[in-house]
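Subject: for your reference before the review

Hello V.,

The reviewers asked for a structural picture of the protein, and I figured it would be easier to keep everything in one thread rather than splitting it across files. Below is the amino acid sequence we used in the manuscript, unchanged from the supplementary table.
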Amino acid sequence: MIWLGFLALVQAEPCEDYGRPQLLLRLRTNELLESSGLAASRVQDGRFFTHNDSGSAPVLFSFSTDGGAVKSWPLSIDAYDLEDMASGPCPGGGNCFYVGDIGDNARIRESIQIYAFRETETGAEPDPMAVWDLRYPSPAQDAESLLVNPVNGSIYVVTKRSQGAQVFRAPKSPGEGVFSLVAELSPEKMGFKMPKLTGGDFSREGNRVVLRGYLSAWEWVVDPQKSEAHWLGAPQRKVSLRLERQGEAITYDLTDRIFTSSEGLPMPLTRIGCSR
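And here is what came back from the structure prediction:
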């Protein structure tokens, strides 16, 4: 068991470069066909959670890197298109999983929903302890990336656009509200044309953030005193990903290694560690 107070001991300095991605295991369960979101437990090292894409019942699946049995927790929500999840502090304290019902391929939804579920020693509570029902300040958007800053609890959604993806911040308080536009990831700012983004995550200490597409990922270093300034500049490094059937999920674990998953049966889990 690893507790939050122990995180400072396992935190590493940001990688100068990442090693080659390594296939760690394949999960064989007929219920998990389209892994779309991925998050590492903040309570137990080596435990991860994932969920299916749209078209499936809202269920969280947990598994460990030792290849043990997959467990499931049906969630007490009505979901339209679950696309990503993140672990982070609950509103008011404790550890939560945030699940984003943020997909909207046709860009027709009046609002999208983000749910916070409390993490327990054995898994997750089925009923959300907080719900955000949010509108964009502009026309409806399609998104697949949900991120939660572990330091200040800020919730971000990054849109899935082939040019000029936008970063939005949710209001602090749950309930109905409107996103705030934080930045646009334009080719001019990035120095390259970023592809459609399918997932993202903050590191456990909030000093790094990663966004992924289907073939590659990009990492920024985060200044804790200016926690949104990194969105205004280009990422510090590119992270090579393993070729996946349809990779949409990415997360850091408690020791700041990067993990990815992909749609498909069996579900592959890939690990990317620092090359030093």
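For the response letter, the relevant points are probably these. Residues 1-12 have pLDDT under 50 and may be disordered. The helical segments are 7-10, 187-190.

Happy to draft the paragraph if you're swamped.

O.
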